[in-house]
């Protein structure tokens, strides 16, 4: 009675070992600023709960496997207003972007197949793939170059007959990097030349700072058949707990097959779909409001980081994360120390050590991911604690 | 750019090809009684929506990966009141029973491994397993013997070094059969002797008729380490669209590993968990109320079936299904004919051909599954249409 190799081999959440230490700190009366997770503090638009409360919920019935028609229509209309055209059978509703990514892995890969991915990457991509025996092959990117992609030949040499897709989040979690149009064109070229699917996780789309536009891969022509788009209400509408996402593609055979996965798990929670339809029906410029909030927070984080000698990072362009190289040896040790041995006037910060975002052994050891998901005053305070803590930590060692 | 073999090999929903035919019938003005799906018409208890409306939902945050503490506590308390004892780290909340079953497949099997299952079985079990490259090996059971298990030696000879678990729903979907204590003891013996996990899908538990008790596998001693229980609010509380289920086991290593799967998909929808906590907090005897409703419907179905010459089925003991052998050649043809060529005063019925519930080629060809999920008057009417239709169909052929 042995557990499967695939589950035993799965990585535990890299911030997980910090959680009990943070809990202990709180028990000691320390206030912990959580910069370690992408849980925004911004209120979910009221229309979400209003739609749910207005729904006739006498019998909470199964929804359709493909999703509630009202939500699918709202998504199609949202994309249409944004210049992209999807049809009814090109959108399937999923349990968050997470399920969409698992479905994309199952649909494109058999056990042992490979997906290319720029590292550092969102650690849960490990889970979505390893649980279904797909291997992620990292394309290494670096803090020094703002985590932009390496040259085409660097990427192409990672491709073999097992490579089935290239996956990335844009804007990037954990880096906050936005792909340039040139990078997007290069991905398109590689995918066409090597016959790969493109899995574009665009859950942070619209969160682009300094007037930059974060383009959707769906704007590129000639890859309609190979593009799999992943979307979600979690970040764009600050509704992480709704667990509503979508998988979208113009490859109808693919969608017809992914529908079988949808049918197997019957449907996504009905009420949350009703709420999500209201979110997607809001004016497009709601995204600007959210972006402006994060841009101010980004500024606070970046300015403070630049005041610390030895920190390496480019100004993040989108999402609400930054990966920074700190003037220390071991970021995990530093993050633990912040929680179990340090406080500034009874307060400390919790960060995510970046090592867990890399697949290549040894990379990211002196890097952390900072999620700027707190109000400006709190971000200000949290960052000055971090700055102060680094001084103390370095003196100690 | 080929899709994976595993997704191409997945079965489509067996009732799916009937759906467009039913839609056409409705467009012709025909009323269709849906006896083809397990979607109860019973109202979801009001406490579900009341709890959601009372929840502070300013920010719809991620819930915990293991589930909302209030829901886990409510489930533990529910089982305690029912004589079973589970601890906090022995319960994980899932997206319906569906996700629990996928997680159980991943955790117990590597690609190519096998799970034993009595057939006919709930067709979606095919999905939960084939999407993760697990093979179901059927233990054939028959209408003539009320779909009870064959002798131990019949089961044991299906076991080989790839067999990792035995899976069943009890009470049974699609059969309505309840395992006897002797059958449960036999499963226990087999599992111990051949070192298998036991995956007991108990989402229909408490729905047992005629004073029968549907025991939980958790009541048996000596299998604590190998038992994986699956539960859900869908049927017992008539809340299918909530998509709240649970996976429970006293094997802590197993649960620690399944938690990694939970972490990968972050969490289950927050609001629905709040509602589900209210459902599990209701008095245990709410189940009696539900059971009494289904028992009356079962009586109508069974009495009518017994009036039809040539029908073979035992009186179903639980859940809200029955699989009946009809005096016809091809149940799929009959089900199609009911929708596209027959009506009785403008009304017809939709049934599920049972072939899709068997893994063994050729079995169930003249059987249908009837879900008794409509009000008594409607069930009465639907069953007399079926009775009438069988006469007409036989005369025609």
Automatic annotation (TrEMBL), chains A, B:
The keyword Nucleotide-binding does not apply. It comes from Hujiaoplasma nucleasis. Keywords: Aminotransferase, Pyridoxal phosphate, Transferase. This is Aminotransferase. PANTHER family: ASPARTATE AMINOTRANSFERASE. Its EC number is 2.6.1.-. Belongs to the class-I pyridoxal-phosphate-dependent aminotransferase family. Residues 32-384 form the Aminotransferase class I/classII large domain. Its cofactor is pyridoxal 5'-phosphate. One of its GO terms (molecular function) is transaminase activity. PROSITE patterns: AA_TRANSFER_CLASS_1. One of its GO terms (biological process) is amino acid metabolic process. The keyword Secreted does not apply. It comes from the Bacteria. The lineage of its organism: Bacteria, Bacillati, Mycoplasmatota, Mollicutes, Candidatus Izemoplasmatales. Gene3D superfamilies: Aspartate Aminotransferase, domain 1, Type I PLP-dependent aspartate aminotransferase-like (Major domain).
């Amino acid at each position: 009675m042995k557990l499967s190799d695939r589950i035993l081999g799965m990585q535990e959440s890299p911030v997980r070992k910090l959680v009990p230490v943070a809990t202990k700190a709180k028990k000691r009366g320390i206030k912990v600023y959580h910069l370690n997770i992408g849980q925004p503090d911004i209120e979910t638009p009221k229309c979400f709960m209003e739609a749910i409360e207005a729904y006739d919920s006498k019998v909470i019935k199964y929804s359709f496997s493909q999703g509630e028609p009202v939500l699918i229509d709202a998504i199609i209309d949202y994309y249409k207003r944004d210049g992209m055209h999807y049809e009814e059978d090109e959108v399937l509703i999923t349990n968050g972007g997470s399920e969409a990514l698992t479905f994309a892995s199952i649909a494109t890969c058999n056990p042992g197949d490979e997906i290319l991915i720029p590292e550092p990457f969102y650690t849960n991509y490990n889970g979505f793939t390893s649980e279904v025996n797909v291997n992620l092959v990292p394309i290494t990117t670096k803090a020094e170059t703002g985590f932009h992609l390496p040259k085409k030949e660097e990427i192409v040499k990672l491709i073999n007959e097992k490579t089935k897709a290239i996956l990335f989040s844009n804007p990037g979690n954990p880096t906050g990097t936005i792909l340039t149009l040139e990078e997007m064109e290069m991905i398109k070229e590689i995918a066409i030349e090597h016959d790969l699917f493109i899995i574009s996780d665009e859950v942070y789309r619209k969160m682009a700072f300094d007037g930059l536009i974060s383009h959707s891969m769906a704007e590129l022509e000639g890859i309609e058949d190979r593009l799999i788009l992943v979307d979600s209400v979690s970040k764009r509408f600050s509704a992480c707990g709704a667990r509503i996402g979508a998988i979208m593609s113009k490859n109808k055979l693919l969608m017809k097959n992914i529908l079988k996965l949808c049918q197997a798990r019957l449907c996504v929670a009905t009420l949350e779909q009703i709420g999500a339809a209201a979110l997607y029906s809001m004016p497009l410029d709601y995204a600007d409001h959210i972006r402006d909030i994060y841009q101010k927070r980004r500024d606070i984080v970046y300015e403070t980081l630049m005041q610390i000698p030895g920190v390496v990072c480019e100004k993040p362009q989108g999402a609400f994360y930054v990966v920074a190289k700190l003037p220390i040896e071991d970021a995990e040790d530093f993050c633990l120390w912040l929680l179990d041995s340090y406080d500034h006037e009874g307060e400390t910060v919790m960060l995510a050590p970046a090592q867990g975002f890399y697949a290549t052994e040894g990379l990211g050891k002196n890097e952390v991911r900072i999620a700027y998901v707190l109000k400006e005053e709190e971000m200000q305070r949290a960052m000055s604690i971090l700055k102060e803590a680094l001084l103390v930590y370095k003196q100690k060692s």
